[in-house]
Amino acid sequence: MAEAHTQAVTASLWGGGVRPYAMGSKKLGMWLFIIADALTFSILILAYAYIRLASPDWPKPFAFSPAILGATLMTFFLLSSSLTMVMAVAAAHRQEHKRAVRYLLLTMLGGIAFIVLHTREWLHLIHDGVRPFANPYGAAMFGGTFFGLTGMHMLHVTIGVVYLGIVAYGFGTKKFKSEDIEVCGLYWHFVDLVWMFIFPLVYLLSVKP
Amino acid sequence: MSANSAQEHAGSSVRLYAWVWTWLLALTGIEVYLGYVNLGTNLMLTLLLGLSVIKAVLIIAYFMHLRFERLSVFLTLWPIIVLCIALILIFVFPDSFRIRDLGTG
Questions:
Q1: Which of A13, A22, B59, B64 is 20 to 30 A from A191 in CA distance terms?
Q2: Are residues A115 and A157 in contact, defined by beta-carbon separation less than 8 angstroms?
């Protein structure tokens, strides 16, 4: 009797059609990716902190204008794009296709503004002579950690903008479901979240005195 | 759900998201201000990291909707990464101080 019961429970769990986390496989897959990616960024941030701690002459090159002002604006654009993203998800769940696509396009615009401002910041530093293993300010590894960390993040934002475009097109033409918008939203918010650590640790702790 | 109550629900969630967004911007403003106050590096780092963790929690809980998912989702995903980061911190940072203090890099 007990054995039959165990068999029935096992069959119901492993037979498919059950959602132990009450979410679809796409969403769970994205959450698992986010955890893996969070570890990637954690390692990059820890490598930056490690090298900075070990270098007594770590430079503080970021003046209020343009660097800190630009980075604050970039934070504003990313946070606002996260707001338009949740609006897109809410509209998609209500099956308001046009409104959802409009919000997705606004989110892309926020991402593009971020990329433009960040590229400007990179060009400014490169113009000043900052290279991955040399710079005129001080510790040689400053460039390597800065370009490595912010470059990896910018790559994520760029991929995010393309991903948003694909999802907006798919949802607009009714090929994709609202769950796809939600999964894309998870990715976008994660990219925003990572910046919430990079901004203070890289920029605000290196404000030009 | 009737059309009316669906609209009410949408209205209340928009208010919640706008509220979270306002808080995130306000915390960012505080962080920028802290960047220009002459505090010690340790206190500054603690405050900035503390504020960043609060912002991350707000984003994960509300924008990423984790607060409204099952507890099992949170328990499956987050404790393990916190453990991984803690282990790395314990093993890596003493070495960084060794390089700085003893010049053995």
A1: A22
A2: yes
